[in-house]
Amino acid sequence: GESVGLHLPTLSVQEGDNSIINCAYSNSASDYFIWYKQESGKGPQFIIDIRSNMDKRQGQRVTVLLNKTVKHLSLQIAATQPGDSAVYFCAENLYNFNKFYFGSGTKLNVKP
Amino acid sequence: DTEVTQTPKHLVMGMTNKKSLKCEQHMGHRAMYWYKQKAKKPPELMFVYSYEKLSINESVPSRFSPECPNSSLLNLHLHALQPEDSALYLCASSHRDGEEAFFGQGTRLTVV
Questions:
Q1: In the prediction, which pLDDT does A5 show?
Q2: Which 19-48 residues of chain A touch chain B by CB within 8 A?
Q3: I want to staple A12 with a disulfide (CB 3.0 to 4.6 A). Which of A26, A28, A73, A109 is the partner?
Q4: On the CB side of B43, how many CA atoms lie within 13 Å of its CA?
């Protein structure tokens, strides 16, 4: 299940299940979004991106959905594996400002 | 070569010390970034260099001084830091600013 509190929200899933990580972004003028994966002790790693003229984009085992009406972004991971355990951040790029703001992050815990 | 290399990986410094963090990329990227990340928090943008010129300074205290000697190198000079400056310092680069950024593994800085 998912828990949200003062600390990093955590999503715990069983290996093989699908995972959905959500992100609410702040600025309706943001036009480019990226999902990053950060493993312990490492820098963020690019997973997938989407521009504001799209609603959905698919990669290998991952799908990003963008709902501009409610300023919501989601990352779907199919057949989640233990190697997917990490903290996931969404990042939004504000049009014409050329700098990325990161969301607060969700920790994904995959149980074998 | 799709790497952003940061040195050192770990650094312990006193409050009166002067030290530098280094970042290097050979992907031909013309935008480079410094981010600061505290534990269980998202990365926070500090500086953006675009075509070797400082384009964004997110109101960072002057005890942090960035430098971009050429298109492949980015330095962060540190002087008179405080213990609360202890964090993971991440360097990133992108083809142009506002595009997908590749991150290094970071320098774990401890100020004593």
A1: 38
A2: 32, 34, 36, 41-46
A3: A109
A4: 33
